[in-house]
Amino acid sequence: MLLLVANYGQLWFQAYWSKSPVTFLELLGMSLRKVNARTIVQAKIMSTQAGLGREISVRKLEAHYLAGGDVPRVTRALIAAQRADIDLDFDRACAIDLAGRDVLDAVQTSVNPKVIDCPDKISGKSTLSAVAKNGVELKIRARVTVRTNISQLIGGATEETIIARVGEGIITSIGSAESHFDVMEHPDTISKAVLHRGLDAQTAFQIVSIDIADIEVGENIGARLQADQAEADTRVARAKAEERRSIAIAREQEMKASTAENRARVLQSEALVPKAMGEAFRAGRLESIGPRSGVPASA
């Protein structure tokens, strides 16, 4: 008994005078189960002083500790939720904590919404690039104000999903605009259109507002594409003209070769004429007519 008092007397007195009584047997059991008794007692004292003593028992705190949870952080989250009139019970807070989410930060974000940059600076991009229907590029930087959706915190999508959805919505809205002047004159129409898309569905956050922080005019992509297309068409036309020229040259060479071949055949045929005439004279098939008398001469 003296050993128990020596080891746990200070904790017992602290809990007793804080109206959070803990028995020596409970403290001994924590020691045997390798539970940090001081952490459990301090969490119990905090919850009792905040008016949560009945909901949070020593057994529940110990069970969450043994499950690998962060008992002090869960306790502070419950106290903050009670002060902010947020519906969050102990079991729900423990489940959020064991799921790997920061339950205290979630409650604080529900009370004080935080601002997310779009695009995220970690991605290395400073602006979103979108092109209106007239082909002019706009570089936009947006700021998204969100608060935590406690009911969707487990299994809900994270900040990265919010950033991706908002960026996609902004690019789509600008792409639907007839001219970049319309966007620059009324940037609030873009933010309103994106906000009404329900981009926070199935996420751990609720989008409070979307604000266009900065708009810059980029290059005229439409004109550049037209110039590139014209250059490509010119190259194609040149290639086709060169192809036709090559075909014409080849045809000319073929005709020259054919002409030479025909000339050779003519010369060959002409070379056979004297021989044929000689054979005809010798065979008596050819007669000559005298130039003066007109009397046929026999060969």
Q: Would you give an account of this structure?
A:
The protein is of the alpha+beta class and 299 residues long. It folds into 2 domains: 2-111, no CATH class; 114-223, Band 7 domain (Tetrahydropterin Synthase, Chain A), CATH 3.30.479.30. Helices cover 58% and strands 14% of the residues. It contains 11 helices and 6 strands. The protein has helices at 2-17, 24-32, 37-49, 58-66, 71-83, 90-98, 103-111, 159-176, 180-185, 187-195, 221-282, and strands at 114-118, 128-131, 136-148, 205-220, 288-289, 296-297. The strands form 2 sheets. Strands 1, 2, 3 and 4 form a 4-stranded antiparallel β-sheet that branches. A hairpin with a 4-residue loop joins β2 (128-131) and β3. α3 crosses α4, α3 (37-49) runs parallel beside α5 (71-83) and α5 (71-83) packs parallel to α7. The protein is elongated, with a radius of gyration of 48 Å.
Please give a handful of descriptors for the protein shown:
2 domains, Tetrahydropterin Synthase, Chain A, 299 residues, two-stranded antiparallel ribbon, 4-stranded antiparallel sheet, 11 helices, 58% helix
Q: What sequence of helices (H) and strands (E) makes up the elements?
A: HHHHHHHEEEHHHEHEE
Helix content: 55-70%
Mean pLDDT: 83
- Poorly predicted regions are none
What structural class should be given to the helix and strand makeup? alpha+beta
Number of spatially distinct domains: 2
Q: How many individual helices?
A: 11
Tell me, briefly, the overall form. Answer: elongated
Strands, total number:
6
Strand content: 5-15%
Q: What's the end-to-end separation, in Å?
A: 164 Å
Rg over CA atoms, rounded to whole Å, is 48 Å
Largest sheet: 4 strands, antiparallel
